[in-house]
Amino acid sequence: MKLVGIVSEFLRGLGEATLFLFTMIAALPAALLRPRLVVQQIYSIGMLSLIIVAISGSFIGAVLALQGYRTLAQFGASSALGVVVAFGVIRELGPVVTALLFAGRAGSSLAAEIGLMKATDQLSGMEMMAVDPIKRVIAPRFLAGLIAMPLLASIFSLMAIGVAGGHLVGVVMLGVDDGSYWSQIHSGLHPHDIIESLIKSMVFGVAVNWIALYQGYHAAPNSEGVARATTSTVVVSSLVVLALDFILTAFMFR
Amino acid sequence: MTPTGQDILVRVRDLRFAFGPRVIYDGVDIDIPRGKVTAIMGPSGTGKTTLLRLIGGQWRPQAGSVQFDGADVHKQSRAQLFEMRKRMGMLFQNGALLTDLTVFENVAFPLREHSGLPESMIRDVVLMKLEAVGLRGAAALYPEQISGGMARRVALARAVALEPALVMYDEPFTGQDPISMGVLMRLVRTLNEALGLTSILVSHDVEEVLSISDYAYVVAGGKVLERGTPEAIRTSQSPMVRQFLDGKPDGPVAFNYKTSRDYATDLLGGAAA
């Protein structure tokens, strides 16, 4: 009996969240009519995550290069280091780690912001001023998140492969030839790898923003509700990102 | 003594509303006469704020109707309801100012969203509204930089920015020091006259509210207990109304929360077992 209750509660939440997604999508044209609000949100959502994404990208690229070099050197294939790092980053770690960081940094703050706006009657107040909060508050944030996520993932990949991470460790520290590092990437990596990486990060962007905004908008209007919304945003979106990554990888890289 | 024969702006008929099993309104009739200040009073938790949300169309009653200027609030499409709300201003208990906007931008918000006025005119209107509540000097401040009483005055300026027909005040005096309470009371009254508004004032600050309202309702337990002019309310003989007005700790509203267990058995029950 209890299990039935849990399942029906889960399905009810899922249905509510799906409806919320459709309402947001329906409000996207309204958000496009207010480019200034969207730009503001890209700035605050994107800038919030930029530094943490860039630093994480550098470290992850560096570690990949260290580990990859050790294995490749055993076979005298250390010149392939670039493509090993690039595959790892572009196909998997770039979109996935960026999405996890984005959920922790931007997602949690979105959920808290919206939850607090609800708790302090700001959303009700807007409704009473005949302004639809979905159009004015939620949709611009959703759109901004959709734009910011692929950009952040690209910055992550650039940092990991070229600017600091892999290149710094592989070429500058371990002495892999600069030319072969880049030419291996050039010949090994295909445009569809990059396109699929971008598709992944867009899908993750939809998922994380959807979860964060839904959690904030449906938070109980008190401090406990806001706390719960931020926590569930991070937990749920991390799990959803990892699960979606598995599904997308299974379809894309067969 | 209902305000009969007058022009009624908001007409509530046989309103029933419940949160799950908890009945908030069990068939109430309320008339809000145009151009007057009408007070809705009652103990905490009787659903006074709920009434405002029902009038504003944010919540739906289970039965009964709310008419605003002749049209049923709950039979409108979303677009029609939003049109209607442009003619209603609501002042939330804590002001509900948008925290990422300055005082000026908060008052400009409904004008920017709805009026289509040029920037120079918006600026003039905002400054006039802020001057009316005495806060023109605070235009550049953010909500976190002003006091709670000032936030309510800004919210009031914002609520009247679109020149609405009706302004609803949700507990405007709660938690205010005597000075800012006096300021708010005077503003409610003077704005009502100066802008030709109709005001609904929800509160449990009995004396203050009765001193500035033209009509008053006392609601409790889902019913209207008393209605009429402030004098009629003050001289009411209903035991419940008397307890509310005189602030008696015990009476029809019991001091003790209802329980089915007897005090003695509750205390000794553990020892007996």
Fold and architecture overview:
The complex is a heterodimer of chains A (254) and B (273). With 254 residues, chain A is mostly helical. Chain A has one domain (36-252). Chain A has helices spanning 2-26, 28-32, 35-74, 81-119, 122-128, 133-163, 165-173, 178-188, 191-217, 223-252. In chain A, α3 packs parallel to α6 and α6 runs parallel beside α7. Chain B is an alpha/beta fold and 273 residues long. Chain B has a domain at 1-87 and 167-175 and 197-273: P-loop containing nucleotide triphosphate hydrolases (Rossmann fold), CATH 3.40.50. Chain B is 37% helix and 23% strand. Chain B has a six-stranded mixed β-sheet, sandwiched between helices. In chain B, α3 packs across α4 and α4 packs across α5 (148-159). Chain A binds chain B through residues 117, 120-122, 124-132, 136, and chain B through 53, 56, 58, 82-83, 85-86, 88-90, 92-94, 96-99, 109-110, 113-114, 155, 158, 162.
Largest sheet of chain A: none
Shape of chain A: elongated
Using the alpha-carbon principal axes, give the shape of chain B: globular
Please give the count of helices of chain B: 10
